[in-house]
Every structure is written in C-alpha cells, then in structure tokens.
C-alpha cells in the first residue's frame, strides 16, 4: 500500500470520526476526597468570579464540586495553586447536570454570579494569626478588607456584601479575663481606642458604643447583608442586643456597678439566635452567660469531641445545603472562649446545621434577619483544639483538606449566589 493511499485513508478516517469527538469545554473541580487542596479550590472559584465568569456550585455532588468554562488561563491558575481538576466535554458535563436534576437526587446546581465584597471586623491591635477567618482567606487567596468600630459607626458596611466578626466582645468588657492576658500594653491600647470613639460619637461609655456598633451590624444584615461570627463574637453579640439600655458591665470595666435588675430587663426578642440565657454578673468570669457550654459542663474530651453536620434537601433548602457542603459529615471539635451553644438556649426558629448530641450542644447554625442571613460557628480555630494565639498561627498548608475550615469558606461563597441588591 502506497504512502499516498495510507495518508488518504487516515484523512478520511479522521473526518468520519470527528463528529464523535467533542472538544473539552468544562472544568470540574471535585470537592470529595479526590481533591488535593479543598481550601485553595474555594479561592479558584472566587478567582473565576473575579474574571466575570459564572461558576456552577454542584450541591451534594462529589462533596460540593465547582464547574466553569474551560480556558487556558484558568487551567494555569489551577496548576499554580495545586488544585485538582478534570476537563470534561460538554456532553459529559451535561450528563452530570442531568444526574443532578433527577427528582430523586438530593443534588442541585447553584449558579454563582457575583464577586462578594468581604469585610473582616477586627481590632487595629489584632495580630495576623489570631483569627481563623483571616488565616483561611489569606491561604485561599481571597481578598478582604479590615473594618472596626469607627468604620461600622460611619456606615461603611454599606460598601460590603459579607462581614465576619472577629472574636470580639460586644458587651464592652474587653473580652474579660482574656483581654488582660493579651498583655497590659495591648489592653491599655484597646481601652484608649474605645474611649476615643466614645467621645467622638457622643456615647457615655464603651458598652453603649459597642451596642451602637452591634445595632449598625444588625441593620447591615436586615438590609440584605451576610454576617458570619465565631467564638465570643457569637454570644456577646446577642447579649449586647438583648441588653439595650441595660447596664450589664461590672465596675471593673466601666467604674460603676451592674443594674441589679439587669437579668430581668433583658429583651430576647431583639437577639438573632439565643433566648432565655442568664448573664454572668461576675467581672472576673471568663464566660459571659449560660449560652456557652463550658468545658467542665460538656463531659467531652478531645478524643471524643466531634460534631455532625446535618444533610439538607438541596432542591428545597439551598441555604443550609450550601453552608454544609463538605467531603466529611463529621467535624473535629475545637475550643474557644465560646466553644459551643447549649441547645436549650437556641431559639426554635434557628436552623441548626451541626451539633454534638452527646453534649446536647449546637456548634454551627444560621438564620435570617430581614433580607439578610447570619451564621454562628462555635470555637476559635478548626485545626487547633485549644487556641494557640498569634505567636503560633495555624499553618494551613498542613491542613489543605480541613473539613472545619471548609465551613468558613462555604459562607464566603454563599453571597455569590445572590443577585446584587441596591444599597440604601
């Protein structure tokens, strides 16, 4: 057979088979155990949104995988960040979509359409490594801006879609004992800054100024914002809301005593998540109220400290489904100034997403206020059973598949699924 005939046959065969070969058109980023770096995968999804391209969040499909159009720059970025991915033909991807769309499949496709603008509420004196959210945002290469009391009181939150509350004390007691352990110089600097804002904005004392901040945050959420809080920012925030107009601060922190009727004057209708709690009136107490399930009350040691995520209907309950996407339904517990929430103190309308039944405690939950959504997550650092502090920050390159940190990043992407709303 001549070379010319062989070449002709090859060309004919190529054109006959060509219609059967579909060009690769989709990238799938699996989020099950096949993924090398779950945390950086969220950063890739954010990066694609920044390029004004849609991202499909495949809820309950392979751990909550991401998919988007194939492009050479995207593949280069995936390789540079060490994120596992697959290239699929359009036909293969449509088969996945059909599988997800089946009425009996507890899966759905959530379109991510916009880049959320992220703010982290953190004191100017805070050091990098003190907060799990800033750690994971930095590791995932997701941009954010820092704000604190002055920016909140100046209504700067209107420039953002998503707000994280650093483990702050909204009652005006400087984190109580934990505040003093930071070091006298730092503690005095926090007091001076707080007092400066008290004078600037016409408040009588720090607890009133902090309540003003809490109210501005509540307005942000009610107007359509997304708020995420961990550790002591969860319970102290609700305590501040319930104590509007009531002095609950020991004289150690503001020079005068607690209102003797403070407990009876609390208004639980004003809170996001908690009710029927009893505040601690001892200024030396590390805990703030009966909300937190204290270590000596839990009866759980580190070896048995795991909480379980709930499974929700992807087609009917998209919000909690998005917030619980994970490759593991069992999450290692971790401590904090506020570690866990006693179940009886959680309002019945709150959506519980993670709990430890053996201790009758809630670890992860969310709800709505007005047009917005909030999430509370107990504990300080998902990969440090006891907080190590800023001198020994968690190295997330050692925990690229952390299920506990994934819960934080689910919340980061959540606003991307919402249509942009006008700010008023």
From TrEMBL:
<protein>
    <submittedName>
        <fullName>Asparagine synthetase B</fullName>
    </submittedName>
</protein>
